[in-house]
Each structure stands twice: as C-alpha cells, then as structure tokens.
Amino acid sequence: MIGTHDDGLEKSKTALPPAVGGSINGMRVLMGLLLLLIAVAAISGIVVALSSGQPTVAFIIGLVSVAFFSRIGC
Q: CA 68, CA 39: separation in Å to the nearest integer?
C-alpha cells in the first residue's frame, strides 16, 4: 500500500520485559534481614556491656560493628 511504513519486517519479541523477575529479590531481602539482625545484636551488645560496667568491651564491640558496616556500605 502507499500509505504504510511497515517495511514488511516483523519485530521479534524474544527479549523479556524489564520487570519480569519482579522488583523484590528474595536473596536481597534475606541479606537485608541478616544485616538488621547483626545491627540489633551489636547495639544490644553495646548496651549490655555498658550497663554491666564494661566500657572497654562496649568500645570494642562498637568499633568492630562500625568497621563491619562501613565495609558493607562502601
């Protein structure tokens, strides 16, 4: 026909759409929960060490947890 710009080629649809896998990855959720658990354990360890009168142990726990989370963040 005169008015169409079809070129006669059919476009293939073999590529998956961008959101086929979903936006929530189960492994990332599990890792996020694990990081949250480690953070809660570190904070509670610091609180327990300070409340029992051991500021050196609390400082060491805090230092290790800050080093861990700074490594995770970078």
A: 10
Tokens of 66: 């800050």
pTM equals 0.65
Distances (CA, A) of 12 to 7, 66, 73: 14, 51, 41
Handedness of CA 30, 69, 21, 23 (dihedral sign): positive
Q: What is the DSSP string of 47-70?
A: HHHHHTT-HHHHHHHHHHHHHHHH
Instruction: Please name the amino acid found at residue 71.
Output: R
Per-residue pLDDT tens for 22-66?
A: 777 888 899 999 999 999 999 999 999 999 999 999 999 999 999
